[in-house]
Amino acid sequence: MAAMGSIERKRVVIIGGGFAGINAALGLAHLPLDITLIDRKNHHTFQPLLYQVALAVLSPAEIAQPIRSIFRDHRNIEVLMDEATGFDLPQQRVLLKTGSQIEYDYLIVATGSTHSYFGRDDWAFLAPGLKNLEDAVEIRRRVLLAFELAERQMQENGTYPPLKFVIIGGGPTGVELAGAISDIARLYMARDFRHINPSTAEVLILEGSPSILAAYPPDLQQKAVKQLADIGVKIRTGSHVTEIQPGYVMVGDERIDCTVTLWAAGVQASPLGKLLGVPLDRRGCVIVDQFLNPPDHPEIFICGDLAHVEENGHQVPGVAQPAMQMGTFAAKRISRLVAREMGSDGTGLTEPFHYFDKGDMATIGRKAAVANIKWPFHGRWSGFPAWIVWLVIHVFFLIGFRNRLAVFRQWAWTYLTFRDGARLITGSQELPGWNLKYGAEESSSPEPSTATKP
Question: pTM of the predicted model, to two decimals?
Answer without folding.
Answer: 0.90
